[in-house]
Amino acid sequence: MSVIRPCPAAVWRKSSYSMGQDSCVEITDQFPGAVPIRDSKTPDGPAIAASASAWTAFVAAVSTGTMTARAR
């Protein structure tokens, strides 16, 4: 993962599971091969970027409940 600077032109979205809460992570799909992730409480702050494959694996692990204690 790497830290990236704010991207004001990016279109960010929250999970539909956030139910309108303010403390969520947001992602943008506008960077092929990478998934920038930011804290919705600090939209002008930095974001971290994960590879698309790492993000897919993370979401799958969370969805299935297979994350190990070490990964948490």
Characterization of this structure:
By secondary structure, the chain is an alpha+beta fold. It has one domain (2-14, 23-64). The protein is 18% helix and 26% strand. It contains one helix and five strands, in the order βββββα. The protein has one helix at residues 52-64; strands at 2-4, 13-14, 25-27, 34-39, 47-51. The chain has a five-stranded antiparallel beta sheet. The longest helix is centred in the C-terminal third of the chain and has 13 residues, at 52-64.
The domain tally reads 1
From the N-terminal CA to the C-terminal CA, the straight-line distance is 15 Å
Largest sheet: 5 strands, antiparallel
- Secondary structure tally, helices: 1
- How many beta-strand segments? 5
Strand sequence of the main sheet, in spatial order?
A: 1-5-4-3-2
Order of helices and strands: EEEEEH
Overall average pLDDT: 81
Which stretches are poorly predicted, pLDDT < 50 over at least 5 residues?
none
Helix proportion range: 10-25%
Taken as a percent bin, the fraction of beta residues is 25-35%
Shape: globular
Estimated radius of gyration: 13 Å
**Estimated structural class:** alpha+beta
In short:
With 72 residues, the chain is α+β, with helices and mostly antiparallel strands. The protein contains 1 helix and 5 strands; from the N terminus they run βββββα.
Task: Give the SSE layout.
Blueprint: E1 2-4, E2 13-14, E3 25-27, E4 34-39, E5 47-51, H1 52-64
Antiparallel strand pairs: 1-5, 2-3, 3-4, 4-5
Features:
DUF397 domain-containing protein, 18% helix, 72 residues, five-stranded antiparallel β-sheet, alpha+beta, 1 helix
